[in-house]
């Protein structure tokens, strides 16, 4: 029996669930995922529960971590069954109160949802991003259980992960230091399961700017990852980016990244 994990930056939970016809609530009603990791809820825990009330009434369990600053960040995990344990943050005095990381235990597996902010090259925002990545990386390398960490990393790892890589070599999201950080995680035993299942091809992209015709031209970035370590990594058998059929059917500027594990 497959165990399915989805990850999606909702770009504001109230906006995503407020869209009618083909919004987030309709997607939730049709998904086969067992666990869904959310990023950028941009809402308090109470507001997130209110926005997801129809899904919670149908049986979903919600584990939220609200933003430390209004309208920024916020992560959560939806699951078909209640997790055995939930932890917010990874022991960081600087970042644990910002609503950027949450993890939940299900039997022998830990699933985490992370939001890494965009940053900006050669600014204090980028320095903060590197501090966050450093502390997060130490936490990831210390894991001993089967572990899947999903989310919006705001880093495109290789040239295959961004359509216009030549125009972004000096921009946040494709800086050498950011890309090297993912190299270090892979060297430490993590598997980028989407890339493992889609080797050597551009994308599949998971984020497209609302500007211009980026979505129509598939001029995107692959910045939403599922990184796995332990026995679970070898059980990944199918990965899809649930790209909307049309620009007007989008309920976020990201698309859900869904992986089936055997």
TrEMBL record:
> Could you tell me the keywords of this UniProt record?
Hydrolase, Magnesium, Metal-binding
**Name under which the protein is recorded:** Exodeoxyribonuclease III
Q: Which family does it belong to?
A: Belongs to the DNA repair enzymes AP/ExoA family.
Among InterPro entries, the record links this protein to: AP_endonuc_1, Endo/exonu/phosph_ase_sf, Endo/exonuclease/phosphatase, ExoIII-like
Enzyme nomenclature, EC number: 3.1.11.2
Domain Endonuclease/exonuclease/phosphatase, first and last residues per copy:
7-254
**Needed cofactors:** Mg(2+)
Q: What PROSITE patterns does the record tag this protein with?
A: AP_NUCLEASE_F1_4
Residue spans making up a coiled coil are none
Starting at the broadest rank, the lineage of the source organism is: Bacteria, Bacillati, Actinomycetota, Actinomycetes, Mycobacteriales
- Which domain of life does the protein's organism represent? Bacteria
Q: Which NCBIfam families does the UniProt entry name for this protein? A: exoDNase_III, xth
Short name of any one Pfam family annotated for the protein: Exo_endo_phos
Q: Quote one Gene Ontology molecular function term.
A: double-stranded DNA 3'-5' DNA exonuclease activity
């Amino acid at each position: 029996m497959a165990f399915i994990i989805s990850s999606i930056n909702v770009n504001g939970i109230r906006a995503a669930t407020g869209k009618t016809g083909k919004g987030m609530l309709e997607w939730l009603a049709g998904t086969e995922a067992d666990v869904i990791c959310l990023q950028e809820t941009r809402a308090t825990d109470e507001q997130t529960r209110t926005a997801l009330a129809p899904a919670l009434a149908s049986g979903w369990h919600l584990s939220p971590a609200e933003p430390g600053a209004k309208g920024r960040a916020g992560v959560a995990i939806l699951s078909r069954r209640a997790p055995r344990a939930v932890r917010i943050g990874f022991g960081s005095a600087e970042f644990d109160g910002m609503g950027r990381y949450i993890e939940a235990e299900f039997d022998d597996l830990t699933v985490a949802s992370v939001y890494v902010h965009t940053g900006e090259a050669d600014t204090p925002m980028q320095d903060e991003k590197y501090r966050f990545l450093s502390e997060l990386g130490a936490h990831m390398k210390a894991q001993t259980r089967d572990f899947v960490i999903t989310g919006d990393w705001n880093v495109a790892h290789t040239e295959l992960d961004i359509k216009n890589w030549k125009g972004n070599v000096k921009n946040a999201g494709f800086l050498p230091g950011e890309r090297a950080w993912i190299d270090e995680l892979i060297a430490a035993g993590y598997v980028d399961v989407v890339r493992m299942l889609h080797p050597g091809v551009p994308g599949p992209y998971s984020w497209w700017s609302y500007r211009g015709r980026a979505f129509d031209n598939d001029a995107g970035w692959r910045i939403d990852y599922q990184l796995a370590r332990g026995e679970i990594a070898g059980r990944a058998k199918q990965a899809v980016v649930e790209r909307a059929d049309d620009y007007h059917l989008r309920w976020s500027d990201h698309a859900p990244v869904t992986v089936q594990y055997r």
